[in-house]
């Protein structure tokens, strides 16, 4: 019995995203060889951490932690590669794995007024503390893409987000025993908030068969 909606998923809530420079050598083994990693500085790509809470008006209500390990390209298409992803709704775990081929796992989220801690089996994955600096005063609609794999297929899916964006001061703590501690090192060079957010994640398309 299917316990999750079919794509597209429309999600409403808020999010904070941190951007980081990531050593390419540290992520190459996590990414399919057919994807080319985009270098933004010698030996470095760009990735980040995305923490969100989807509430009333969403097809499913849940919190989410996404680790984007790199910006990648394939056949002229550019997108992100999700190396780790955690949610607190088992139906979201199932839908993420079965629709998009994403490696979703279950975790617990503790939200404060300006903080969030994510734990799995009583082990902390990360803690984010943040304070709003200012709103950009805009509510644009932006789109992007992400790659994934499912069975023998290389997939790409698009998503678009409409939100009130702003800049935040963020301190991200990733314990040394966290599964992504080797990827996310140090503090972000940029952190962005998204309030009044409406996110639509579209169904994936098959790009190619994997070797």
UniProtKB/TrEMBL annotation:
Q: What domain of life does the native source organism fall in?
A: Bacteria
Question: Which molecular function terms from Gene Ontology are attached?
Answer: lyase activity
Pfam families, alphabetized: ADC (PF06314)
Q: What is this protein called?
A: Acetoacetate decarboxylase
């Amino acid at each position: 019995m299917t316990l999750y909606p079919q794509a597209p998923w429309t999600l409403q809530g808020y999010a904070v995203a941190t951007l980081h420079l990531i050593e390419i050598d540290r992520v190459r083994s996590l990414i399919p060889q057919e994807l080319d990693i985009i270098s933004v500085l010698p030996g470095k790509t760009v990735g980040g951490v995305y923490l969100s809470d989807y509430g009333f008006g969403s097809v499913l209500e849940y919190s989410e932690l996404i680790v984007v390990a790199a910006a990648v390209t394939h056949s002229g298409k550019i997108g992100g590669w999700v190396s780790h992803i955690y949610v607190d709704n088992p139906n979201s775990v199932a839908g993420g794995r079965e629709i998009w081929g994403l490696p979703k796992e279950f975790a617990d989220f503790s939200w404060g007024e300006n903080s969030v801690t994510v734990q799995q089996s009583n082990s902390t994955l990360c803690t984010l503390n943040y304070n709003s600096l200012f709103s950009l005063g805009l509510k644009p609609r932006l789109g992007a893409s992400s790659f994934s794999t499912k069975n023998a297929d290389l997939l790409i899916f698009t998503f678009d987000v409409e939100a009130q964006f702003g800049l935040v001061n963020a301190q991200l703590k990733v314990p040394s025993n966290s599964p992504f501690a080797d990827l996310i090192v140090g503090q972000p060079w940029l952190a962005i908030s998204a309030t009044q957010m409406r996110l639509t994640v579209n169904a994936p398309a098959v790009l190619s068969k994997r070797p």
